[in-house]
TrEMBL record:
Protein name in UniProt: Iron-sulfur cluster biosynthesis family protein
InterPro entries xrefs: ATAP_core_dom
Residue ranges occupied by any Core domain in the UniProt entry: 1-112
Length: 117
């Protein structure tokens, strides 16, 4: 499993990174400290979360390599992901799109930096 980010997505995410931070690719299922909701919906939803290394990452037990470093995931969320994925920035709407070999996984990938006040 691997994720490649385009230049726009790399710039958006790395602007929030430093050596003391981690990136989570959160499956929005309402489980865990960083999942925003558990609404019943027909669409798979994910978000990119930035946390500091000293924040709780319980449940995030696996990583996916990317071209900006590893993204931590809840292992069971792999069933909603694909082997080769991309994250692209939609310049017009300033949102991120997560896609795989078969098509779009999430056309409005959330982004929350939990280290910002």
């Amino acid at each position: 499993m691997k994720i490649t980010l385009d230049e726009g997505a790399k710039a958006k995410i790395t602007a929030h990174l430093s050596p003391d931070k981690l990136v989570l690719l959160t499956f929005e299922d309402g489980v865990g400290a960083y999942s925003q909701h558990a609404m019943i919906h027909m669409q798979t939803q994910f978000s990119i979360n930035i946390i500091s290394k000293d924040m709780d990452k319980a449940g995030y037990d696996e990583t996916i390599p990317t071209n900006i470093g590893d993204f931590w995931i809840k292992g069971y969320s792999k069933e909603d992901l694909q082997e080769l994925m991309t994250i692209k920035l939609n310049q017009r709407l300033d949102n991120l799109i997560l896609s795989g070999e078969v098509g779009v996984i999430d056309d409005n990938l959330g982004f929350i930096d939990f280290t910002e006040k």
